[in-house]
Design goal:
P-loop NTPase, 16 helices, nucleotide-binding, five-stranded parallel β-sheet, rod-shaped, alpha/beta, P-loop_NTPase, about 425 residues, about 15% strand
Length: about 425
């Protein structure tokens, strides 16, 4: 369709009669409204009565906003001024007002140019759409590849050391288990979840600059890079996520943060050894839910036996397979009127390893050194190293009975415990 702008009624009628199917306007406002609402308009014929500045304004607008719209200027005299005006403002052609054939030809050329521009724009839009589609497909393929790589990546094993009674040597077992595994060339991360009184760092003579509570500053984005920033290095193969060094820390790591931490560490190291507090709190349950093995620690006395009996009963209620439990009996040589057989029979659980009372144990703790490193030939050191070998063999070979590790269970155990 062709639009005509001509204030003179007689001239407007001549042009409209000559250009069949055209629409004519006497003022720029009517033409402007028409052009903006008619996407299929391809030519505007500006009559000789239209002022030069108005014609230039229309052409400049069309050049920017509607490059497919051909502006044809009619003048009684096609002189240098008219040609210069057309050149500056981006008009398509200048034609003498009396040259009726020239006007018709100019309109036809405007139609051809508009069709070509429209086809080019369509081709560009199609090419852009194909590019976007290809990028989406590539991103989806990349995301699938990353997900597959993560799924196929070697997954570290989580070993949680637990007891419902303090002072039984839980941290001693945790630190020496971590060091013994690291000494065999395995990458290990010790996570101290006893957020109120954790001793892992001090037992290894470490001074952490960042602790587990720094997870709260990550805004839920807990990845390998962020985790690395809060690790305290003990050796080439052993690092520690330390417990808070202050009880009045303004930031507290949430259970969700700790869950993300343990999940990420499984992809970063061979073994994650978790030292817990002496209660079934949310932090302990978060670790237990993700554990491949649960190491229970007790001492040869009635209070410890009672606490362990309560712990094992609770683990059974929460459906943690007994095959994933391991039991370390500390100070098993105590002459306290209770034998190892009586302890095991009452508990219903055989000790996987036993440790004896020894001043070297306390000496190693006071020196901030693992017993297996400070006194490698000590009876307890040999027992702990053998225990670490059996633990590594069990979880690495996936030969734990009853199928999948408890680490694949949902966190519903917390709700079950709270309701109980």
């Amino acid at each position: 369709m062709t639009a005509i702008l001509e204030p003179d009624g007689a001239q407007r009628a001549v042009l409209q009669a000559m250009l069949h199917g055209s629409v004519a306007f006497a003022d720029p406002e009517g033409l402007d409204s028409h052009i903006r609402s008619s996407a299929n308009e391809f030519a505007v014929v500006i009559g000789p009565s239209v002022a030069s500045h108005a014609a230039a304004d229309l052409a400049q607008w069309a050049r920017v906003h509607r490059p497919d719209l051909g502006v044809i200027l009619l003048r009684h005299e096609v002189d240098s001024n008219a040609l210069a005006l057309a050149l500056r403002s981006g008009m398509r052609e200048v034609v003498a007002a009396r040259d009726l054939a020239g006007i018709t030809t100019a309109v036809q050329r405007a139609r051809s140019v508009a069709n070509a521009i429209g086809q080019t724009m369509m081709d560009e839009a199609q090419a852009a759409a194909e590019t976007v589609r290809a990028e989406v497909v590539a991103q989806a393929a990349q995301a699938a590849a990353v997900a597959q790589a993560e799924a196929e990546a070697p997954r570290g094993r989580v070993i949680t050391v637990f007891s419902t009674k303090g002072g039984v040597g839980k941290s001693l077992v945790s630190t020496n288990l971590g060091v013994a595994l690291a000494n065999k060339g395995r990458s290990v991360c010790l996570v101290d979840l006893d957020v109120n009184s954790g001793d892992v760092a001090i037992m290894l003579q470490l001074t952490p600059s960042r602790t587990i509570n720094d997870l709260a500053t990550f805004s839920g984005v807990i990845d390998a890079e962020g985790i690395t920033s809060i690790l305290t290095r003990h050796s080439d193969n052993l690092s520690v996520v330390a417990a808070p060094v202050r009880l009045d820390s303004p930031d507290q790591a949430s259970v969700e943060d700790i869950g993300k931490l343990l999940d990420a560490l499984r992809r970063m190291v061979d073994f994650v050894v978790v030292d817990t507090s002496g209660v079934f709190d949310d932090h302990a349950l978060c670790a237990l839910d993700r554990s491949d093995l649960i190491v229970l620690v007790g001492t040869l006395d009635i209070p410890s036996l009672k606490a362990l009996k309560l712990a094992t009963s609770t683990l059974e209620v929460l459906n943690f397979p007994k095959s994933t439990w391991r039991f370390v009996l500390n100070r098993a040589d105590g002459k306290v009127g209770l034998t190892i057989d009586e302890f095991e029979k009452t508990l219903g659980l055989k000790a996987d390893t036993s440790l004896v009372s020894s001043r070297e144990v306390l000496a190693a703790v006071n020196r901030g050194e693992a017993l297996v490193s400070a006194y490698p030939n000590h009876t307890n050191s040999k027992a702990l190293v053998a225990f670490s070998d059996s633990v590594a063999s069990a979880v690495s070979a996936d030969d734990i009975d009853e199928g999948t590790p408890s680490g694949r269970r949902s966190s519903g155990s917390r709700l079950r415990l709270r309701r109980a």
